[in-house]
Design brief:
Blueprint (H helix, E strand, L loop, with lengths): L3 H11 L3 E6 L4 E4 L1 H7 L3 H4 L13 H14 L9 E6 L5 E12 L5 E10 L1 H25 L1
Antiparallel strand pairs: 1-2, 1-5, 3-4, 4-5
């Protein structure tokens, strides 16, 4: 017989994708092995802490403004398309993250918290940035040659 509780627990714990759950107040209550690997904080270091530990300081106000809108309305503009944001690691270095969220509600429909599924896309983001720079340079060269 398949033990779905055991399979669920193993999937959450063993996936390489970072999975984080935070309650309405933005306090981390679930931090899997993928999150440990991605951010460099152990579960013991992250659990009970604010999401601020992974949000660069200059982005915190925007994050919390959006968080509060979601908590108040129950709606998010980040549906099926992943969101790209900067993140910060335990060592203070930054990275580019792509993530999706799931809003978790109780039986009455009240939001209990949000689960996020995150991955590091820094390499991909840097490659796209370099391509944009190259395109601008080529456009400038074409303009100079035709002008």
């Amino acid at each position: 017989m398949v033990d779905f509780d055991e399979i669920s627990a193993r999937l959450l714990a063993e996936t390489q994708e970072a999975i984080i759950y935070a309650t309405r107040d933005g306090v981390i209550r679930f931090w899997n092995g993928g999150a440990e690997e991605l951010f460099g904080f152990s579960a013991g270091e992250a659990l009970g802490k604010s999401l601020d530990i992974i949000i660069p300081e200059k982005h915190r106000n925007a994050h919390w403004d959006g968080w509060d809108r979601v908590m108040d309305s129950g709606n998010t503009r980040y549906g099926s398309e992943p969101l790209n944001v900067p993140g910060i690691k335990a060592d203070g270095s930054t990275m580019s993250l792509e993530f999706s969220i799931t809003i978790l509600k109780d039986d009455d429909g009240t939001i209990e918290g949000i689960a996020a599924f995150l991955r590091d896309v820094t390499t991909k983001w840097n490659e796209k940035k370099a391509l944009r720079v190259q395109i601008k340079e080529l456009e400038r060269q074409i303009e100079d040659a035709s002008g």
